Amino acid sequence: CILYYAVANDIHMLAPLRPLTRNHGQAGYTDGPVGMALFRNPMGIAVNDSNPLAHTLYVTNDGHMVRRVHPEKMQVTTLTGKPTNSGYNSSIDGALDEAIFANLDRGIELMGTTVVVADGSKIRSINLVASEVTTVAGQSNSGLRDGPGSIALFRSISDLTRHPSKPQIFIAHS
Q1: How far, in Å, CA of 97 to CA of 31, rounded?
Q2: Using the 8-state DSSP alphabet, how is residue 148 labeled?
Q3: Where are the beta strands (DSSP E) in 8-88?
Q4: pLDDT tens figures, 53-66
């Protein structure tokens, strides 16, 4: 079993214990080799563990980005989103390099070739094959309303998890 965790702007791996990023808490948005890449407030981590020798980590970063960490390649890249200081405060669907996130938190899960994230009051889907981001449930305005994805309303979604054997997502929101 390998355990990954985020603390002080770094990503760490247990078993064996070693930091994947070595920036001693320095914050930023730099992609590159794990020894030089920078994170700012990493929150959620999802692991593609279908191949234990070539797993990939997906990390929510500073509420507005999803980063990809390749431990074996020792490389960090931005999958989608823009840094906080880019002036965006709402969600925009689209291609990976155009998508905008409003408020990513701990909620991130990998379901096959799709990364599912909680983005404020929305559930968003990052399709790794089609290279696009779409909103699957919720709206910009928050509330409480059951119904199909485009009608449902959520308050601030703090976390989500997937069913272990079915294509279902469970969410926690206030």
Answers
A1: 14
A2: S
A3: 10-14, 18-19, 32-33, 42-48, 56-61, 65-70, 75-81
A4: 567 889 998 778 99
